[in-house]
Design a protein that fits this description.
The protein has 343 residues and is an alpha/beta fold. Helix content is 40%, strand content 12%.
Length: 343
């Protein structure tokens, strides 16, 4: 647990860090023990084989002395996966599942997530940064593309909800991406800062709708995008107006709000300034992924312990994750999933 009842100085820092390789180095262990991040995130560079990942996850948690420290991963399916064959099963992109006829698409979304959750739970990974709820428009940058469940709110809501429920059923928490909506971005936020100029009314009726419908989910990740209708100067991750008025207000999301990766080029300023501004804007957690020690030290110096509200949100999410799992037959689930994909 994150300890909502603990005094500020006893809570972990409001940051999630990556590490450099397949094993935790002594220097990384000492750094994590000293700065006490809330949790960790795994990337492809960290994941070679199941036993190796299990050992790494255990070492990360041991470094901070908390068996419940969240461990995150991006395992969407398609292009965005960190666990790959031959050690792990390949899963199709969201668009591939969404192309199935109804109601098979919904069944496939839920089965894919349940199988992914089984993969992650076996490794000790507790949070999957999926599903994508963004609604791509025809002239958008392809960074979202086939990661999306569709281009209309109703379809995305149904399929993404099935995916979320599949993860939760397997004891893994979903993360809604990228709130309040990345589908209109005409540049890749990994490389530059997108600006969305559409009116508030249009955004509310389209981009915000899937997030509003799934606002009861436990985690969401911000978009590094400027929404001029709310704040013409700062991207959502760094904007108190976007967080308060759009994400917490109009959309009604009251779960754990984590920033997208602070190292992405959409954000200006030093890496430490980015971390401090994200928390000041209302993010519960700052996310730093690349494992660069100098950058992590700068981020650690800029972030504070979890706020009382953030700690309470994390505790609610963890209580949801710890619900007794339903009975699960992996072989039967894989057979049914393969049957659906063959349609």
């Amino acid at each position: 647990m994150s300890g909502a009842s603990l005094p500020d100085e006893k809570r972990p820092r409001a940051v999630v860090f990556g590490c450099a390789g397949e094993r935790l180095t002594p220097g990384e262990r000492d750094f994590f023990a000293a700065c006490d991040p809330l949790g960790f995130v795994l990337f492809r560079r960290n994941c070679r084989a199941p036993e190796q990942v299990r050992a790494l996850v255990a070492a990360l948690r041991d470094a901070v002395g908390r068996d419940s420290a969240p461990v995150l991963i991006d395992q969407e399916g398609g292009r965005v996966v960190r666990l790959r064959p031959p050690a792990w099963r390949a899963y199709p992109a969201a668009a591939r599942l969404a192309a199935l006829p109804d109601p098979d698409a919904e069944a496939a979304a839920g089965l894919a997530a349940r199988l992914i959750a089984d993969d992650l739970a076996r490794l000790g990974v507790t949070v999957d940064c999926a599903p994508v709820l963004d609604l791509p428009v025809p002239d958008a940058d392809p960074v979202i593309g086939d990661r999306a469940w569709g281009t209309t709110p109703d379809r995305v809501i149904r399929l993404a909800h099935a995916f979320c429920e599949g993860l939760i059923a397997g004891g893994v928490l979903p993360v809604l991406k990228h709130i309040p909506g990345h589908g209109r971005a005409r540049v890749d936020s990994h490389l530059d800062c997108p600006h969305v100029e559409e009116r508030h009314e249009l955004l509310s009726a389209t981009d915000f709708a899937p997030f509003r419908a799934l606002a009861g989910m436990p985690w969401a990740m911000t978009a590094h995008i400027v929404y001029s209708a709310f704040d013409p100067a700062a991207p959502a991750t760094l904007s108190r107006r976007v967080v308060d008025d759009a994400i917490r207000g109009e959309i009604g999301f009251d779960g754990v709000l984590v920033s997208d990766d602070l190292s992405m080029r959409a954000l200006g300023g030093t890496i430490g300034e980015r971390a401090g501004r994200a928390l000041a804007a209302g993010c519960d957690l700052a996310l730093h992924c690349n494992g660069d020690r100098a950058e992590m030290e700068a981020v650690a110096a800029a972030v504070t312990p979890l706020s009382t509200a953030a700690a309470a949100r994390l505790d609610r999410a963890e209580n949801l994750r710890r619900r007794p799992p339903a009975e699960f037959d992996r072989a039967a689930a894989e057979a049914r999933f393969d049957e659906l994909l063959a349609l």
